[in-house]
Design a protein that fits this description.
By secondary structure, the chain is α/β, with parallel strands linked by helices. The protein has helices at 42-52, 64-74, 81-102, 127-131, 133-136, 144-156, 193-210, 226-236, 251-259, 273-282, 293-296, 298-310, 323-333, 381-385, and strands spanning 3-12, 17-25, 30-34, 117-123, 161-164, 215-219, 243-245, 265-267, 288-289, 314-315, 342-345, 362-363, 366-368. The chain starts with a strand and ends in a 7-residue tail after the last helix. The structure holds magnesium ion (MG).
Length: 392
């Protein structure tokens, strides 16, 4: 069996592209992975995959670890970021092929399953209804009553936890994600009284609707420096968050935030490979490690999770993508002993279910493990082609 073809495929998922990798073998097997990037260079990923393809085409796809390290050597001087996303995507698609060739789910290749189901949380809760209600056919988040109603909906639909962002409901709801808005002073990342007051109202409304037992997570992303992260952490302490999520590229600064608040801290979604995570673990920077299996690839994600386990830490896979990524992330959870919870986006484009051949089985806040060979879901290319990206 040899790798014959590697393709990078895009579709327009409303406010970002979803990006997939398709690898075909000479005997007709097809492996899929998702490599979505909406933070830098979605077009660049295709070019990287093309640049790496000569090291993969003609190889036996089942030697996934060997191919991973071949690609690592090729790109060692440009580590992380979109390079790692491309390598991780190639590795994940090869794993799909290998498992399909053997007729087993991917987790069987790694001694799994370690569990039968995985607790999931409703991510970008309210965020999507504030920034993309039109393309998701959801109700605009127009008021704090709508936030409370959404909290009730989360519970009614069986979920036990949700994650939201810096969302301000209104006639024109706002989500100042990552300072993308630009302009003078936006890299200062200072926190304002209004932002803290708005977050207090947001969490009060979610708590009122969802009740005391609902797990509340607030993700601050990269919006603030340490001073701002700390101010918000202290303001959020009365809400007894499941965790406060903070992106930060300095392990010591993050450790300072963690030690200065009673809230658990989750971080790591933008950190790559076990080398990247090691200084965070050594500095005791986080209570929960957010690991992205789409961006790291399965092998590195498992190494990160294994290292986290030695630091008495659980992993919460970062997963805000299509259903295929949810399947891949579930497989990771099924091969490790230290899972906190899995991220899933519930509000999304109306054709999300049609894009794949199987959808995650989620009930009572738990996703059942897929049992079909490979990841358990393939991309439906007919549906993918109905949503071209970039738009013509
Ligand atoms: Mg996050």
């Amino acid at each position: 069996m040899k790798v014959k073809k590697i393709e990078t495929l895009y579709c327009d998922a409303g406010w970002r592209p979803w990006i997939f990798l398709k690898i075909t073998t000479d005997d007709g097997l097809v492996g899929w992975s998702e490599i979505t990037d909406s933070h830098g260079s979605p077009r660049g990923l295709k070019g990287i995959v093309e640049d790496l393809s000569p090291a993969v085409i003609g190889q036996d796809p089942r030697a996934t670890e060997r191919i991973y390290w071949d690609l690592y050597r090729h790109t060692r001087q440009s580590p992380g970021s979109v390079i790692q996303k491309a390598i991780g995507g190639i590795e994940n698609a090869l794993l799909d092929i290998k498992a399909k060739a053997l007729g087993v789910p991917v987790y069987e290749l790694f001694g799994g399953p370690t569990r039968d189901s995985i607790r999931v949380y409703w991510s970008h809760c309210g965020t999507t209804r504030a920034r993309a209600w039109q393309v998701t056919n959801t109700k605009k988040l127009a008021s704090y009553d709508d936030v409370a109603e959404l909290g009730r909906e989360v519970i009614q639909r069986g979920f036990t936890a949700l994650k939201t962002n810096i969302v301000t409901p209104g006639d024109k709801p706002t989500v100042p994600m990552q300072g993308f808005q630009g302009g003078s002073g936006t890299t200062d990342q200072n926190v304002s009284f209004e932002t803290i007051a708005s977050l207090e109202r947001l969490m009060t409304a979610f708590r009122a609707g969802g009740g005391d037992s609902l797990g509340l997570i607030l993700d601050l992303n990269f919006n603030f420096k340490t001073e701002g992260n700390l101010s918000i952490a202290r303001a959020m302490e009365p809400f007894k968050l499941m965790w406060l999520e903070v992106d930060c590229f300095d392990p010591a600064a993050l450790a300072h935030v963690r030690r200065s608040t009673t809230l658990p801290i989750c971080s790591g979604e933008n950190v790559y490979t076990n080398r990247g995570f090691r200084p965070y673990f050594e500095a005791q920077s986080m209570d929960v490690a957010s690991v992205d299996v789409i961006w790291n690839g399965f092998s590195q994600s498992r190494k990160i999770a294994d290292m986290a386990e030695t630091y008495e830490l659980n992993v919460a896979p970062h997963n805000y993508y299509s259903h295929l990524a949810t399947f891949i992330s579930a497989h990771l959870c099924a091969t490790i002993p230290n899972v906190r919870i899995l991220e899933v986006d519930i509000d999304d484009v109306p054709w999300k279910d049609e894009l794949v051949t199987a959808v995650p089985a989620i009930a009572r806040g738990e996703m059942s493990l897929p049992t079909a060979p490979g990841w358990g879901a393939d991309v439906n290319e007919t549906v993918l082609k109905q949503h071209p990206w970039p738009k013509a």
